[in-house]
Amino acid sequence: MYLGLDLGTSGLRALLTDPVGRVIDSAEAGYDNPHPHAGWSEQDPTDWIAACESAIGALKSRNAAAVADIKGIGLSGQMHGATLLDRAGQVLRPCILWNDTRSSAEAAALDATPKMRDITGNIVFPGFTAPKLLWVAKHEPEVFAKTVKVLLPKDYLRFWLTGEFVADQSDAAGTSWLDTGARAWSGDALKAGGLTEDHMPSLVEGSEVSGMLRSSLKEAWGIRAPVVVAGGAADNAAAACGAGCFAEGQGFVSLGTSGVLLAAKDSYAPAPETAVHTFCHAVPARWYQMGVILAATDSLNWLARNLGQTPGDLARALPDQITGPNRAMFLPYLSGERTPHNNAALRGSFVGLDIASDSKALTAAVLEGVAYALRDNLEALKATGTELSSVLALGGGARSRFWLETIATLFDMPLRLPADGEFGAAMGAVRLAMAAAEEASLEEIMTQPDIAETIDPRAELSEAYEAGYQRYAALAPALIADAERVGL
């Protein structure tokens, strides 16, 4: 049997499968995500351990015999988090998460350091790990002085599981310390952040063995044989493995808390000036590029919270078929933006509201605004030379036909909806565990899901939505200028 552990921002998901990847059971456990100050986002790493114990305990209570036969564990996790450990392996402060923007000044200074973009293949974004350590060095020097190891969130979970300090290249590529082309830590990048390679975990490919499950946990969970723990992957790389997107031209659009447009790459071809991320894939000699918006379903959640309704009720009030863009427009920069603007101070806005604008009109504007932002990501990917002919549609937002038709029409390409089943980050973690433990080839393991339906662009509406997108794109500079004036 195999176990995939996906350490997300709001909770941990454990997925138990049989030897060929068929799902036996799954369990989830949540935890808090405190925001102690504006722009801050933190978590207590001990909450991740408690969630893991809770989820595996639930699986064991229902499937003791299957849990006893676990052969491999794969890990997936939220990227960019800074988990700081002292010499005894104790956590020094709450982990600073991916959506924390306090280190925007440090990110800008690091990004201006000669050769940083050449080494890492990426802009140094405020959410990345390296600027967080510069912030700690400046504002919490006593913590920085005690820091012996810096681990990404899932790699702290790995430390608890195995006792080993190990990371995989797909997650490490989001730190701004990795030579992404060489798939190795960069001494120059680390030096720019006041660190050395001794502060870093060792590196393995996501499909390789990173360590063995500790005997005490084996006994506690009733597992009989030795258990390998795979290198695993950053959440989006794991989702790509779960959806079988690891060859050139394969990709997906994900409508989760954040929005992602990902394209797998057979070669390394960074273009940091586009604000597209170029990261190592979770499998050897592969990379991926992706555009990221920070508030996709989070934008709908925000609207629902303020209207006193549920996101599902708001989405269901819209028709399945689109009829044309709304006059009201929403720019979804509630937490700043990554691709293509790289601006932590940017904030969202409604434009074109009417006295008759109701909750339905506001919901349509929010969903369209996210779709326009994802079109920005598609244009940024095209600027790097990346081509996609069709993409899988993943994430909770993919349940909205209105949203999918809007995106397909704005992209001018079909969106493919997977049939019911597991194909997300937890399944990607399982597949990486299988690759680490078995002799099977990656092509045999990383298959694409069956397609239940294809959402085609509405050709008769393409001109209207293109005009809507051009109007949207023209508004962003005004919001950027406003953010600079306000000084957020």
Describe the protein in words:
One of its GO terms (molecular function) is D-xylulokinase activity. It catalyses: D-xylulose + ATP = D-xylulose 5-phosphate + ADP + H(+). Its EC number is 2.7.1.17. Helices cover 38% and strands 20% of the residues. By secondary structure, it is of the alpha/beta class. The strands form 7 sheets. Strands 1, 2, 3, 5, 13, 14 and 15 form a 7-stranded mixed β-sheet that branches. It has a 7-stranded mixed β-sheet with strand order 18-19-17-16-22-23-24. Strands 4-7 form a two-stranded antiparallel sheet. Strand 16 and strand 17 form a beta hairpin. The chain folds into 2 domains: 230 residues, ATPase, nucleotide binding domain (Nucleotidyltransferase, domain 5, 2-Layer Sandwich), CATH 3.30.420; 225 residues, ATPase, nucleotide binding domain (Nucleotidyltransferase, domain 5).
Which key phrases capture this entry?
488 residues, alpha/beta, Nucleotidyltransferase, domain 5, seven-stranded mixed sheet, 18 helices, 38% helix
Q: What is the H level of CATH, i.e. the homologous superfamily of the largest domain?
A: ATPase, nucleotide binding domain
Average the pLDDT over all residues and give the rounded result. 95
Categorize the overall geometry.
globular
Helix content: 25-40%
CATH-defined topology of the largest domain: Nucleotidyltransferase, domain 5
| Structural Rg | 22 Å
Q: What is the makeup of the main sheet? A: 7 strands, mixed
Structural class based on helices, strands and sheet pairing: alpha/beta
Number of helices: 18
Catalytic activity: D-xylulose + ATP = D-xylulose 5-phosphate + ADP + H(+)
InterPro entries: ATPase_NBD (IPR043129), Carb_kinase_FGGY (IPR000577), Carb_kinase_FGGY_CS (IPR018483), FGGY_C (IPR018485), FGGY_Carb_Kinase (IPR050406), FGGY_N (IPR018484), Xylulokinase (IPR006000)
EC number: 2.7.1.17
Binding site for substrate: 79-80
